[in-house]
Amino acid sequence: MKHIKKIIDTFEPISLAEMDEVKLLDRTDTKYMFNIKALPDILMRASEHYRVLDINNIRINSYETLYFDTKGLSLYNEHHNGKLNRYKIRYRCYKDSNLSFFEIKHSTNKNRTVKQRIKKKNIEEEITGDAGDFLLAKTHLLPENFTAKLWVYYSRITLVNKTSKERLTIDLNLSFKEGDKIVKFPKLVIAELKQDKAGKSFFTELMKDCNIRTMSISKYCFGIINIYENVKKNNFKMKLQHFNKIYNDKN
After folding, report:
1. CA–CA gap between residue 171 and residue 192 (Å, rounded)
2. What is the 3-state secondary structure of 8-71?
3. Backbone angles phi, psi at 24, to 5 degrees
4. What does the pLDDT look like over 174-208, one tens digit per residue?
5. Could you report the per-residue pLDDT of 78-118, keeping only the tens digit for each?
6. N or C: which terminal CB in the chain sees fewer CB atoms within 10 Å?
7. Do 122 and 94 form a contact (C-beta atoms < 8 A)?
8. What pLDDT is stored for residue 250 in this prediction?
């Protein structure tokens, strides 16, 4: 991690206020999953093309997220079954900027991700008050049907393209928690390219050059698979095989 931090410190910074120009709350996402041993070279090659989010001289930021679902994990199962127009419901705390939001993430049938959110003082373990009103207004889902199901923790490097409207998030130190059960993946990196519309990018070309292919699985679904027993996961079989290959460095 020290080596990664040294490389990140060579990037030109971008402030949180400047990031407002590339919020991309309505966007296309392209995801990648790879072993952390590949990250230093990727960062060095990307340094000329991206600026890094810097919050009070911190460039690897801590995130904390609490996901909600029904008793039968209907949101997880909709994703597993490939349903279009599906939702993720969560509280998220951006630890280093001391900001928290209640968020609704909508994956549309037009292959776009639309995120809507309201600011909160902190993460709450129930969807009540203005969060419940917001959920009902935006989705027609009843807040009382949803309970807290999964805590997700990770560190994030946020890069912004110098010449185009594009953000790149690189997530490290991923861990999941439910009750007393904790599962950690210290060797895993999840990178997500966020664009106004899908198109050619330096990063997509870099991934091709590194023989890293796109791999779309949400952190929520990945966490449910690893925390909960007896959940459906047959439709994720190929993705889980790919994860095991890259995580255990089997070329």
Report:
1. 8
2. HCCCEEECCCHHHHHCCCEEEEEEEEEEHHHHHHHHHHHCCCEEEECECCECCEEEEEEEEECC
3. 50, 55
4. 999 999 999 999 999 999 998 877 667 899 999 99
5. 999 989 889 999 999 998 888 999 999 998 887 788 899 99
6. C
7. no
8. 60
Q: SS3 helix, strand, coil % of the chain, rounded to 5?
A: 30, 40, 30
Residues pairing with 91 in the sheet: 66, 102
Q: Residue 108 has which token pair?
A: 């549309």
Q: What is the pLDDT of residues 154-172, one digit of tens each?
A: 999 999 999 888 899 999 9
Pairing outcome for strands 147-161 and 61-69: antiparallel
110: CATH: 2.40.320.10
Give the span between the Cα atoms of 208 and 124, in whole angstroms.
41
Per-residue burial over 96-113, b = 16 or more CB atoms within 10 Å of its CB, e = otherwise: beeebbbbbbbbeeeeeb
Distances, alpha carbon 39 to alpha carbons 48, 52, 112, in Å: 15, 15, 27
Q: What does the alpha-carbon distance between residue 155 and residue 173 come to, in Å, rounded to a whole number?
A: 6
Burial of 201 (0-12, 13-18, 19+ CB in 10 A): middle
pTM of the model: 0.91
**Both structure tokens of 39:** 């990250």
**β-strand partners of 17:** none
What's the structural domain count of the chain?
Answer: 1
Q: Which domain holds residue 32?
A: 2-247
Structure tokens at 194: 């966020």
Question: What is the pairing mode between strands 166-178 and 147-161?
Answer: antiparallel
